[in-house]
Amino acid sequence: MQKIKSLMTRQGLKSPPESLGDLGAVESLRVPGKEEFRELREQPCDPQAEQELINSIEEVYFSADSFDIVKYELEKLPPVLNLQELEEYRDKLKQQQAAVSKKVADLILEKQPAYVKELERVTSLQTGLQLAAVICTNGRRHLNIAKEGFTQASLGLLANQRKRQLLIGLLKSLRTIKTLQRTDVRLSEMLEEEDYPGAIQLCLECQKAASTFKHYSCISELNSKLQDTLEQIEEQLDVALSKICKNFDINHYTKVQQAYRLLGKTQTAMDQLHMHFTQAIHNTVFQVVLGYVELCAGNTDTKFQKLQYKDLCTVCSNLITVHMSVF
C-alpha cells in the first residue's frame, strides 16, 4: 500500500486526506470520473499477475521525492542500444504502470463512498464553523454594548452611593447637634437632683462633641453656653460644700468630691472646705459670745453685732470681770 501511495505521488495523483487538518487538500482533490474507472476496471485482470507486476517494480521507484525517474532510466541504457530489448523493456514498464494505475483505481473506487461521506461532513463542519463565527462576532458586539452600559450604570451607582454616605453623615451630625441643643434641660434636671458628677460628665462630653462640629455656627453659641453651665455647677458645688460643715452627709460629700475630681480641682475643694469650716466655726462662736455679751449687758443693742470677734471677746471679758467683782 505504501508503494502504491508513493507511485501515486510521482504520477501527480492525490489520495484522500487522512485528517480534517488539510481542508485545502480536500478541495483540490480530483476524483477520477466514472468513465475512467470503468475503463480501468474493464481491462482483463489477474490479481496474482498484477501483484507480481507491482512487486517487480524496483525499490528505487519508492525512494525520496527528489528521485529523478527519467534520469535513472536513461542512465540504465547500455552503450549499444537494441531496439527489440528497448521495446520489451518499454512494454514491461507500461504493464507495471497499468497494474499500478488499476490498483489505484480499485482503491479509489473502494474508498469513494467514505470519501464522499467525509467530504459532506467536512462541508457541514465548515458551514457550522462559519455560523459559529457569526454568533461569536454578534456576541462580542453585544458584550461591548452591555459593557459600556454597565460601566455607565456602575458609575451612576457609585455616585449615588457616595451621595447617600454624605447624607447619612450629615443626618448623624444634625441628630448630634439636636441632642446637644437639648442637653441644657437635662443638665438643669441633674442639678436639681444634686447629681453633680453626672452633670459635669454630661457637660464635658457635650463640649467634646461640640468641638467636633465647631465649623457649624450654631455650635459656637452652644460652647459658650456649656462653659457658663460649668461655672454655674462650680458655684453650686461650693454652696453644697458649705452645707457639709453644719449637716454632714457621707453620700452628699462623696458626690461633691467626685464632681471636683472630674473638674480636676480636688485641691481647690480641700481649700474651700477648710475655708467653709473656719467660717462656720467663726460664725457659731461669734453668735455664742454675742448672746452672752447681750445677756450680761442686759440689752439687745445692735452695736455689739458690728464688733469684730476679737473686740467682742474683749467686751465679754470685761463684763465677766465686772460680774465677778459684784459677787
Automatic annotation (TrEMBL):
Signal peptide: none annotated. GO terms for cellular component: cytosol; EARP complex. GO terms for molecular function: SNARE binding. Residues 1-25 are annotated as: Disordered. Residues 216-243 form a coiled coil. Keywords: Coiled coil, Protein transport, Transport. It comes from the Eukaryota. Residues 54-315 form the Vacuolar protein sorting-associated protein 54 N-terminal domain. The keyword Metal-binding does not apply. GO terms for biological process: endocytic recycling; protein transport; retrograde transport, endosome to Golgi. This is VPS50 subunit of EARP/GARPII complex. It comes from Propithecus coquereli.
